[in-house]
Amino acid sequence: VDIAADGGDEFAIAKSDGYRISLIHRSSGKSNENAVDVANVALSHIREAEALHEERGIKEKVKVKLDTIGVGWGVVSILQKWAEEGKHKSLIIPVNVSERAKDPEKFRNVRAELWWNGRALLQPDATGRQNVRLDVDRKILSQLAGPTFKADSAGRIQIESKQEMKRRGVTSPDRAEAVLLALYEPPGREIPNVAPMSISQPNQWSGMNFGNM
Q1: For a Cys-Cys bond, which of 53, 103, 108, 170 suits 58, CB 3.0-4.6 Å?
Q2: Burial of 105 (0-12, 13-18, 19+ CB in 10 A)
Q3: Cα 207 from Cα 211, distance rounded (Å)
Q4: CA 125 – CA 186 distance, rounded (Å)
Q5: What pLDDT does residue 91 have?
Q6: What does pTM read for this prediction?
Q7: Cβ neighbours of residue 46 under 8 Å, at least 6 residues apart?
């Protein structure tokens, strides 16, 4: 779940059903101004996912990963409170993308790790096989190719911020970040092995190969 930071951004929810990723909600404007209203939208999708788990006999809790930067924290708090009150049974996972990465020697922060590992998961392997399937529109594909990256003074991977993107006329990649949050496994859980990628590669993510999605 990527919460809209202001009136010009989108509130977006992506669903990972195994490694099949789809966008299941997007909205912008006044409908996103109230944290309770936003949390209620999230709750409706949480309950749908819980019903699917029950139908399939899955005992593991639904994992709901939310970007907590700015207004996102209020939505997280509401959803956590509703879990205590029995309104849902899912695991609410706050993700602060400015915090220390799981691999702090390679990545400047969680945002860099989120984008870089997401990119690696979406790349076909040497045989052309792709484990992750994106059922999304071309706007999301464009957003996934939007940010640039560079190395910081310590040689760690750093992803262009939303503010920097806006200054060069690129819209906030809210739908893409919802997709990446759906793929992301926070510390304490294993993520699939991904092939290492060299930071000497071109400084634009437009080289991502979506042909097999």
Answers
A1: 53
A2: exposed
A3: 11
A4: 24
A5: 96
A6: 0.84
A7: 62, 64, 79, 88, 90
